[in-house]
Structure to design on (179 residues):
C-alpha cells in the first residue's frame, strides 16, 4: 500500500504556487497547516514573517523572514493521542520499527523552493534524527532547515542566517550549523 499523506500538503502548496504564478500574483502567503508558501513580498516591500512554532508551549521558537519560499514543518506535537497508561503516541511512525518516532528532535522545518520536496524532507529528517539530518543536509544541500532538539537547541543552516530571528525569552540555545 502506498500512502502519500507525508507529501500531500507539500504537493498542494506547489499547485497553489503554480496558480499564483499563472495569475501573476506578486505577493501572497498561504498556510496549509505546517506547510507555508510565501510568494513575493508584502505590499510594503518587506519579506513575509513565517514563525517556527514552539513545539512544547504556545508561541514560536524562531521567526523567518522569507520571500518566494516554502517552509514546511514536521513534528509529533500536534497530532497525537495519550494512551490509558499516560504514554503519548505521536502520528509520525518510524518505518524501521512501525512505532511512533522516539528521536532526539521535536521538530524539523525545511525551507526550499519546492513544497513537495520540503514536505518529504521534513518528515524524513524528523525520523532520521539530528545527526543523520545534519549529515543529509551536508551531503545533499539544496534546502535549508531548522531543527528543534529535545535537549533545548534550535539549529539552523547558514542559508537562513540573514533571515533567521531568535525568539527572546526562550530557554533555547540557538546554533548556526557548520557546513
Amino acid at each position: 500500500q502506498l500512502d502519500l499523506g507525508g507529501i500531500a500538503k507539500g504537493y498542494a502548496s506547489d499547485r497553489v504556487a503554480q496558480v499564483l504564478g499563472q495569475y501573476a500574483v506578486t505577493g501572497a502567503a498561504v498556510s496549509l497547516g505546517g506547510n507555508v508558501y510565501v510568494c513575493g513580498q508584502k505590499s510594503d516591500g518587506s519579506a513575509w514573517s513565517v514563525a517556527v512554532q514552539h513545539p512544547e508551549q504556545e508561541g514560536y521558537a524562531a521567526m523567518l523572514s522569507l520571500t518566494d519560499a516554502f517552509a514546511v514543518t514536521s513534528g509529533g506535537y500536534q497530532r497525537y493521542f495519550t494512551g490509558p497508561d499516560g504514554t503519548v503516541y505521536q502520528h509520525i511512525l518510524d518505518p524501521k520499527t512501525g512505532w511512533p518516532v522516539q528521536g532526539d528532535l521535536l521538530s524539523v522545518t525545511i525551507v526550499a523552493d519546492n513544497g513537495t520536496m520540503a514536505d518529504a524532507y521534513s518528515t524524513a529528517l524528523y525520523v532520521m534524527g539530528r545527526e543523520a539530518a545534519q549529515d543529509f543536509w551536508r551531503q545533499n544541500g539544496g534546502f535549508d532547515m531548522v531543527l528543534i532538539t529535545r535537549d533545548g537547541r534550535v539549529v539552523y543552516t547558514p542559508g537562513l542566517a540573514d533571515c533567521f530571528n531568535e525568539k527572546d525569552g526562550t530557554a533555547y540555545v540557538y546554533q548556526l550549523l557548520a557546513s
